[in-house]
Amino acid sequence: MELSYVGKLFAAFTGMTADEALEQLETIRLSVTEIESRLKTGVDPEKHSQVLSYAAAALAFYRYSVLCANTGGIQNLKMGDTTFSADSKTAVQTAAAIRDEFMALAAPLLQDQRFAFQAV
Q1: Is the CA virtual torsion 102, 105, 111, 115 positive or negative?
Q2: What is the pLDDT of residue 81?
Q3: Phi, psi of 85 (to 5 degrees)
Q4: Where are the alpha helices (DSSP H) in the chain?
Q5: How is residue 86 annotated by DSSP?
Q6: Crossing angle of helices 25-37/3-14, nearest 10°?
Q7: How far apart are CA 76 and CA 120, in angstroms?
Q8: Residues 27, 60: contact at Cβ < 8 Å?
Q9: Which one of 9, 52, 78, 118 has the fewest beta carbons within 10 angstroms of its own beta carbon?
Q10: Cβ–Cβ < 8 Å for 16, 64
């Protein structure tokens, strides 16, 4: 995954400029690291870089949304040419839905970290 590409995707999710997205570089980097650490053995990250990049950007967007919701920072969400005004709860819910969608696409490539008790 290219950090710069994930940053561009993050900027697109948030409606930020590239310069504004740079201020969130640590959040983006953390999300890239998490996705890379969850790769199943044998998965070639270069072969699947697009879906992994989108998953990392969506995860960073969710984290950013949660942080902003706690500080009153999100007032609207821009996806392409469409802007949605929302309260912080709605913004976090929207970011969670976006995160879940892209994580579902990447799920076959990632280790499942959920716990499931199946039998004794």
Answers
A1: positive
A2: 75
A3: -90, 135
A4: 3-14, 18-22, 25-37, 49-71, 88-106
A5: -
A6: 120
A7: 49
A8: yes
A9: 118
A10: no
Length of the chain: 120
Which is more confident, 81 or 98? 98
Instruction: Give the whole-angstrom CA distance, residue 94 versus residue 100.
Output: 10
Q: Which backbone phi and psi does 115 adopt, to 5 degrees?
A: -90, 135
CA-to-CA dists, residue 25 to 6, 7, 81, 108, 112, angstroms: 10, 7, 24, 27, 26
Confidence at 20, pLDDT banded by 50, 70, 90 = very high
Which two structure tokens, joined as six digits, stand for 24?
């969130």
Cβ partners under 8 Å of residue 46, min gap 6: none
